[in-house]
Amino acid sequence: MNQERLYNWTLEQKEAESIRIIKETLERFGTDKVATTFTGGKDSLTLLHLIKQACGGTVPVRVIQIDTSVKFKEIYDFVARMSKEWDLNLCVVRNEEALKTIRIAEDHVQCCYQLKTVPLQNAIRDFGLAALFTAVRWDEQEARQGEEYFSPRQNPDHLRVQPILHFREIDIWSYIRKYNLPFCELYRRGYRSLGCEPCTVRGGPGGPERAGRAQDKEKAMQRLREMGYF
Q1: Dihedral over Cα of 14, 228, 133, 98: its sign
Q2: pLDDT tens sequence across 169-196
Q3: Which of 88, 176, 191, 206 could form a disulfide with 63 if both were Cys (CB 3.0 to 4.6 A apart)?
Q4: Under 8 Å CB-to-CB from 102, ≥6 apart: which residues?
Q5: Contacts with 115 (C-beta within 8 Å, 6 or more apart), sequence order
């Protein structure tokens, strides 16, 4: 796959390719067997709006919010706002057992695995999903650079579908401006990538997009992804 060629597409071409992937997935599996993730961040917001475009103005699939219990209040408020305004079928999932014992942010890899990956895996099983949309991008994180649009996964078996791989950070903001989309106010305060509050700080301009994330976790991203993280 020629990523450089795709990066050079116009925003309209990138939108069209994303919508094609979304429609192909829904035609193959149906809306009951497909869900999308929504973190409250700019990328999953863009993906949600692309699903709306592909589906006549609605989001007809489950929208999974993984609640670690330590997200920023602004993120919780924004997800609640969008759920109401866009009439989302929001499904909030948590690992209640882990929350009773885990020391938040002490071991970033185990914390992410227990509080993000495990509830996501449980949701895929519980909802009987065949496919899951996620809003990862090639240019966002080194461990995601080799991803494909359609990626079979195990534990549990499902197809990970990633329709905005070819969007760059600048494309995301161009898309948000084009459609005048609301977005989480933390971005106005200098955050470029939103995670859990104990593990996220403002990222400086000009550096890596995820410079404000816990860097030991970033270095272990490939391992986390092999464990089921997106």
Answers
A1: negative
A2: 999 999 999 999 999 999 999 999 999 9
A3: 88
A4: 110, 111, 114, 115
A5: 66, 68, 69, 94, 95, 98, 99, 102
Query: What global pTM score does this model have?
Result: 0.93
Token digits of residue 98: 């882990």
Q: Which residue has the tokens 């979304």?
A: 22
Q: Map residue 92 onto helix, strand or coil.
A: strand
3-state SS track over 172-227? HHHHHHHCCCCCCHHHHHCCCCCCEHHHECCCCCCCCCCCCECHHHHHCHHHHHHC
Distance CA 145, CA 7 (A): 13
69: its two tokens: 């219990």
* Burial status of residue 157 (CB atoms within 10 A of its CB: 0-12, 13-18, 19 or more): exposed
Helices (H), the chain: 3-7, 11-29, 42-54, 73-85, 96-101, 108-112, 118-127, 169-178, 215-219, 221-226
Smallest CA-to-CA distance from 161 within 45, 36, 74 is with 36
Which of the listed CATH numbers 3.40.630.10, 3.40.50.620, 3.90.1150.10, 2.40.100.10 matches domain 3-226?
A: 3.40.50.620
What is the tens place of the pLDDT at every residue in 28-82? Answer: 999 999 999 999 999 999 999 999 999 999 999 999 999 999 999 999 999 999 9
Tell me the two tokens of residue 150: 């359609």
